[in-house]
């Protein structure tokens, strides 16, 4: 198995911090008890679970009683949406956006088949919402507004508090999928309109299989997983103790590094982006560059296929992605970039680079060194170089063929 690469796909998942690994090893070996047990061997682990809860609460500016551990971001999103609807059985309307992660979009689509109506807010070319459209969609029947904090594909950040204020005016609950924002944007739930907020461990240098949902005190919450009394009856199932300990430590490290890492990642990301834009013709950044995560850039290279770029980057040991990991492999272009109304010529040739605190100057140099040549090589092979109409026709035929 390959283990060494230039890893610029941190929005898909991150490396577990070595400090986190070291801390959790005893919880995988010696301390295997059940935190709910009466005996000391198991019961002592409740303390570790509590410490992690405090660490996570500190990162969110929340109270520890407001943290519910989950298995992943997807579970957090599912649990929050279901809980909001169960708590308000008379309300049958949900507002979300066209650019959400499938963990929200596909839940909403299923709810439509169960008698709920869903408004999918549009975004503009920059990937930003129109708050007037949100206001016009809200009614007294709206149970929930659920939007992401930052987009996984473009890094575009939504004006969360402005959305929340409007939701509150209509008495709707407000859930935020902050899987991509946690650790990259300072958060303070104390002075916030957010009622529930999802996060995922594997995006912040903890392992896969652990996440959390913030539930504001006072928000009526009905559990998604029903069974035992764990998590104060809000999420049944024996706790993933090593995962929880890891998440707590990872949160502590995110807080410690946030300011300095954010600055560094922004500088490296901007250098990568600006150099590629200067050296490669016919390319552009997708999404609002003023309201954006510091670690993400999504660049559209006209007239070529993103997958072809990725394959060549892979030959140089560079990991990036087109769209998101969950949807890669499907031939459909990204629903996020489509919602932004990108032209077909760019839609298929878009690549996301996402950095983290381990990304080095030398790694960025390496990408800068190979990208112009990769794009030039692919464009030389492309029969449609500078031929918008030809490219468009070919893409349409491909799509028809795959659907056919
Ligand atoms: C915005 C967003 N929400 C939810 C998820 C799902 O998180 P998980 O992979 O932990 O289920 C992801 C993962 O890519 C994401 O980027
Ligand atoms: S890995 Fe991020 S979209 Fe699934």
Automatic annotation (TrEMBL):
GO molecular function per UniProt: cysteine desulfurase activity
Catalysed conversion reaction: (sulfur carrier)-H + L-cysteine = (sulfur carrier)-SH + L-alanine
Cofactor(s) needed for function: pyridoxal 5'-phosphate
Domain annotation Aminotransferase class V: ranges: 6-367
Highest taxon of source: Bacteria
EC numbers on record: 2.8.1.7
Keywords per UniProt: Iron, Iron-sulfur, Metal-binding, Pyridoxal phosphate, Transferase
Gene3D superfamilies: 1.10.260.50, Aspartate Aminotransferase, domain 1 (3.90.1150.10), Type I PLP-dependent aspartate aminotransferase-like (Major domain) (3.40.640.10)
SUPFAM superfamilies with a match to the protein in the record: PLP-dependent transferases
Job description of the protein: Catalyzes the removal of elemental sulfur atoms from cysteine to produce alanine.
Family: Belongs to the class-V pyridoxal-phosphate-dependent aminotransferase family. NifS/IscS subfamily.
Quaternary assembly: Homodimer.
Protein name (Swiss-Prot/TrEMBL): Cysteine desulfurase
Gene designation per UniProt: nifS
């Amino acid at each position: 198995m390959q283990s060494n690469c230039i890893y610029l796909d941190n929005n898909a998942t991150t490396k577990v911090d070595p400090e986190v690994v070291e801390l959790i090893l005893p919880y995988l070996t010696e301390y295997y008890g059940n935190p709910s047990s009466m005996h000391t061997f198991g019961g002592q682990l409740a303390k570790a679970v509590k410490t992690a809860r405090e660490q996570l609460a500190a990162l969110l500016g929340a109270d520890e009683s407001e943290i519910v551990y989950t298995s992943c971001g997807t579970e957090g999103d599912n649990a929050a949406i279901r809980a909001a609807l169960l708590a308000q059985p008379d309300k049958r309307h949900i507002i979300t956006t066209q650019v959400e992660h499938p963990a929200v979009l596909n839940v909403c689509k299923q709810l439509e088949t169960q008698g709920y109506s869903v408004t999918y807010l549009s975004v503009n070319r920059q990937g930003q919402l129109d708050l007037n459209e949100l206001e016009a969609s809200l009614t007294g029947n709206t149970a929930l507004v659920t939007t992401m904090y930052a987009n996984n594909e473009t890094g575009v950040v939504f004006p969360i508090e402005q959305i929340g204020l409007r939701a509150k005016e209509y008495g709707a609950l407000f859930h935020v999928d902050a899987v991509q924002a946690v650790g990259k944007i300072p958060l303070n739930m104390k002075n916030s309109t957010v009622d529930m907020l999802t996060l995922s461990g594997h995006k912040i240098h903890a392992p896969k299989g652990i996440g959390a949902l913030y539930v504001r005190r006072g928000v009526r919450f009905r559990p998604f997983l029903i069974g035992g009394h764990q998590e104060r009856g809000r999420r049944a199932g024996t706790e993933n103790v090593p995962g929880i300990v890891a998440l707590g430590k990872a949160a502590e490290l995110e807080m410690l590094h946030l300011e300095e890492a954010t600055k560094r990642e922004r500088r490296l990301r901007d250098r990568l982006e600006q150099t590629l834009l200067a050296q490669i013709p016919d390319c552009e950044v997708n999404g609002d560059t003023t309201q954006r995560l510091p670690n993400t850039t999504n660049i559209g290279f006209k007239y070529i296929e993103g997958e072809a770029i990725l394959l060549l980057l892979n030959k140089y040991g560079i990991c990036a992605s087109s769209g998101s990991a969950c949807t890669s492999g499907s031939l459909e272009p990204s629903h996020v970039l489509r919602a932004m109304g990108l032209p077909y010529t760019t839609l298929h040739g878009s690549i996301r680079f996402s950095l983290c605190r381990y990304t080095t100057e030398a790694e960025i140099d390496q990408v800068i060194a190979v990208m112009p040549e990769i794009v030039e090589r692919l464009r030389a092979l492309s029969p449609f170089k500078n031929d918008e109409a030809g490219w468009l026709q070919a893409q349409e035929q491909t799509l028809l063929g795959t659907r056919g």
